[in-house]
């Protein structure tokens, strides 16, 4: 298929990897991308990473055809009416949950749940509940307000963060979701204290980012739990001090953790996306002040069930969306930390693939053979 891109009446025709049905291999298609509407920007995607939540939605959600992808970086191609923050040529990170700056939640220091640009669930733009993608006049739906598996995409200006043109986009794109989510869960939501004990269920990019954040906060013991033995050595590089595989244990993993930590850890993190594991995580932290943070996106059974006694004895369960970061306010500081070598990102990138190999990235992640695959768009 031709990789040429042209403008006609300010509509761009470009290539995108389109999902036509749940679990079906993505197909390279020519799509029309509308010009940005008021307060929107159109972005030339430079690189995008595959996140586990893309796969979860691709396997289970009913909104198709759809363009997935949300962990991305690119260059502003054009801006819509009323946009003053961005100009053509700006380098940006995309974010799946925005920051309008004026709603009750954006004005509060207790929340990052923007009431205007929060989670997009129906595959439509926030402003007018329509799409900006089409194929031969028929709509193609968005995902997470970004849809970065396309050479060009349109996002609300509140769902993009300006970065320096000197920052490597193929690295910091991971701050659009996974790495930032894990670090924020450790720093903002749990507020891990020095000398504390931590257990992390699931050692993908998010779980290992939690480990990195816990290490930087001075946690004395960071226990990583995963059924993939290949995660062991990689986890130690991010701060995990002990690795446990539940399949190798003769007793329930929560009992193992309580036994080796004298009653449970100070903090536990559920990074799998399995609501059944939330109870296990709760049981793994200590009475009195044990805090469990859940970050995973469940594939099935979204309801959480736990015995009231776990809470009566002083444990707390908290959810974490994007690590509590206000994206436009806080992401620039994380970019600075990367540039200053205060946090690591590069080691999360296990594969670099061309745009046409996105389906290979899906296979690698589903088989547990990667952390992050960065997809490079044609120049």
From TrEMBL:
InterPro entries from the UniProt entry = ADH-like_C, ADH-like_N, ADH_Zn_CS, GroES-like_sf, NAD(P)-bd_dom_sf
Start and end residues of each Alcohol dehydrogenase-like N-terminal domain? 39-163
Q: Report a single Gene Ontology molecular function.
A: alcohol dehydrogenase (NAD+) activity
Q: Write out the coiled-coil annotation as residue ranges.
A: none
| UniProt-listed PROSITE patterns | ADH_ZINC
Q: What class of enzyme is it?
A: oxidoreductase
Its family? Belongs to the zinc-containing alcohol dehydrogenase family. Class-III subfamily.
- Protein name per UniProt: alcohol dehydrogenase
Question: Species name for this entry?
Answer: Rubroshorea leprosula
